[in-house]
C-alpha cells in the first residue's frame, strides 16, 4: 500500500516544502506560516506531517532542516515534549469492573496541572538509576546560559516527574490485537523549558540579521555565535530534563499499577517490556544522504528512521498507535506526533459542552468536567485519516484503545 503523498506546498520557496496532507485540508494561516518558514534564507527543506496545524512561531507538525542556524521558536516553549509507553503482561481479563480507583491512585502519585513534587519525585529517592540520572542532570543546572534562570532550580527540581496540563496525559490502554495492557504518557519540560525558550526567543529577536524577517517569531541563531552556543547548551539540557521527567513518571505509574493489581485484584507480579520513549518537540544534528549536515527541528513530529520505535497518540477517546519507522528519506525520516488539533482550545470550549465530552469519552475512565472540554476528541483530527496519510512513513505495531486517561 502506497500513499498519494507527498505533495509540494504551492508558494513555498524553490519547491522545498513537501506535505503528507492536502493543502485544502490545512487552515490557510498554517499554510502561510509554512511558506514564511520555507523562505527563510537558512532553511534547506521543510516537511509537513498530516497532523499539521497553526502554531506559535512555527507550524505544529513540521520538520524544518536548516543550514548552520536554528530557530528557538521553531522548537517552541515545550522543549523535549514527547511520549513514553510500556507494554505489560496484564490483559483485559485482569481488569476490575471499575477503574476509578486506579485513576485516583495515579493522580495521587503523579502531580498534575500546576502542581509539582514535594522537593523531588519520591521514586527518585528509592531508585538508584534514576537518582544518578537526576543528580547528574541537576549538577549541570548552574551551567545554563539563559539570563536570570538561576533561581528557578527549586521549581525545576519539584516539577521533574510531573505531568503538567494541556494535552499532556497518562493512559492505561489495551492493544486491539492481543488485549495486553499498555501504560502511555505524554509530557514535556514544564516551566523550566518554557522559561529557557522564552529567554532565548527574546534574545534572538534583537539580533540584527533577524530584523527584516516577515515574522519575527522565526528569528534564528547562527552557527559560530555565542548566542547559538548558549541556546544549544540550554536546549540539550531541557531535552534531557523532559526525557528524565517522562522516565520518572513512567516508573511511578508502573509502581502504582503493580501495587494496585497486587492489592486489589490479587494478580501475580506485573511484568513490563522495554519502554518506548521519544521526543516530538526537539532539535538534532542529522546528516543527509548527500552528506550535508543539517540542524533538524521537529515540532510536533517524531523521528521515523528505519526501525525507530515511536508513538502517535490520538485523543482522550481514541487511543494511540505504537509504530516502527520505515526510514523514508523523503520525509527526513519523520512522521506525525499525533492526530493534531482541528480547532483551537478557545473554539473547542465555545463549541462543546461537558455533555459532549461525556458522550465522546464514553467507556473511558477520565475527567469529564469543564476543565478538560478543550481536550475533547472532537477538537482533534481523525487519527485514522492521519495514519492513512503516512503509510509510507511508519508501520503500525499496535493499535491501543484508551481505557483510563489522566489529564492535568
Describe the structure.
It is globular, with a radius of gyration of 21 Å. It has one domain (7-342, 380-407): tRNA-splicing ligase RtcB (Alpha-Beta Complex). It has 408 residues and is α+β, with helices and mostly antiparallel strands. It contains eleven helices and 17 strands. 31% of the residues lie in helices and 25% in strands. The chain starts with 6 loop residues before the first strand and ends with a strand.
Strand content: 15-25%
According to CATH, the fold-level topology is tRNA-splicing ligase RtcB
Radius of gyration: 21 Å
Low-confidence runs of at least 5 consecutive residues = none
> Mean pLDDT, as a whole number?
95
Q: Percent of residues in helical segments?
A: 25-40%
**Count of individual beta strands:** 17
Shape: globular
Named at the architecture level, the CATH assignment is: Alpha-Beta Complex
Kindly provide the name of the CATH class: Alpha Beta
How many H/I helical runs? Answer: 11
Number of domains: 1
Helix and strand content put the structural class at: alpha+beta
Q: What is the assigned CATH homologous superfamily? A: tRNA-splicing ligase RtcB
Largest sheet: 7 strands, antiparallel
Q: How would you write the strand order of the largest sheet?
A: 10-6-8-7-17-15-14
Order of helices and strands: EEHEEEHEHHHHEEHEHEEEEEEEHHHE
**What is the terminal separation in angstroms?**
39 Å
Amino acid at each position: 500500500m502506497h500513499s498519494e503523498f507527498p505533495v509540494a506546498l504551492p508558494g513555498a520557496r524553490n519547491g522545498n516544502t513537501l506535505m503528507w496532507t492536502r493543502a485544502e485540508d490545512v487552515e490557510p494561516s498554517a499554510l502561510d506560516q509554512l511558506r514564511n518558514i520555507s523562505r527563510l534564507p537558512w532553511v534547506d527543506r521543510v516537511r509537513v506531517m498530516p497532523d499539521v496545524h497553526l502554531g506559535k512561531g512555527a507550524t505544529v507538525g513540521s520538520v524544518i532542516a536548516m543550514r548552520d542556524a536554528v530557530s528557538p521558536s521553531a522548537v517552541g516553549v515545550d522543549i523535549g515534549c514527547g511520549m513514553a509507553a510500556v507494554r505489560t503482561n496484564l490483559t483485559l481479563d485482569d481488569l476490575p469492573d471499575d477503574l476509578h480507583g486506579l485513576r485516583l491512585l495515579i493522580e495521587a502519585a503523579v502531580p498534575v496541572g500546576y502542581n509539582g513534587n514535594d522537593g523531588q519525585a519520591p521514586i527518585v529517592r528509592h531508585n538508584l538509576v534514576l537518582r544518578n540520572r537526576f543528580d547528574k542532570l541537576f549538577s549541570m543546572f548552574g551551567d545554563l546560559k539563559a539570563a536570570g534562570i538561576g533561581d528557578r532550580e527549586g521549581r525545576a527540581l519539584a516539577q521533574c516527574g510531573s505531568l503538567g496540563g494541556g494535552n499532556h496525559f497518562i493512559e492505561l490502554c489495551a492493544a486491539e490485537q492481543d488485549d495486553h495492557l499498555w501504560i502511555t504518557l505524554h509530557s514535556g519540560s514544564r516551566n523550566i523549558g518554557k522559561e529557557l525558550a522564552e529567554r532565548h526567543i527574546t534574545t534572538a529577536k534583537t539580533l540584527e540579521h533577524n530584523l527584516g524577517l516577515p515574522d519575527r517569531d522565526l528569528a534564528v541563531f547562527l552557527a559560530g555565535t555565542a548566542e547559538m552556543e548558549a541556546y544549544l547548551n540550554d536546549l540539550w539540557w531541557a531535552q534531557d530534563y523532559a526525557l528524565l521527567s517522562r522516565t520518572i513518571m513512567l516508573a511511578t505509574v508502573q509502581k502504582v499499577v503493580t501495587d494496585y493489581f497486587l492489592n486489589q485484584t490479587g494478580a501475580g507480579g506485573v511484568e513490563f517490556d522495554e519502554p518506548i520513549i521519544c521526543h516530538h518537540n526537539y532539535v538534532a544534528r542529522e546528516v543527509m544522504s548527500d552528506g550535508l549536515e543539517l540542524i533538524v527541528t521537529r515540532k510536533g513530529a517524531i523521528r521515523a528512521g528505519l526501525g525507530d520505535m515511536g508513538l502517535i497518540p490520538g485523543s482522550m477517546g481514541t487511543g494511540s498507535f505504537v509504530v516502527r519507522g520505515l526510514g523514508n528519506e523523503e520525509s527526513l525520516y519523520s512522521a506525525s506526533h499525533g492526530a493534531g488539533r482541528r480547532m483551537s482550545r478557545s473554539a473547542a470550549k465555545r463549541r462543546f459542552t461537558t455533555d459532549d465530552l461525556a458522550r465522546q469519552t464514553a467507556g473511558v475512565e477520565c475527567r469529564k468536567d469543564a476543565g478538560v472540554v478543550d481536550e475533547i476528541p472532537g477538537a482533534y483530527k481523525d487519527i485514522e485519516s492521519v495514519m492513512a496519510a503516512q503509510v509510507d512513513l511508519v508501520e503500525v505495531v499496535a493499535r491501543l484503545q484508551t481505557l483510563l486517561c489522566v489529564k492535568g
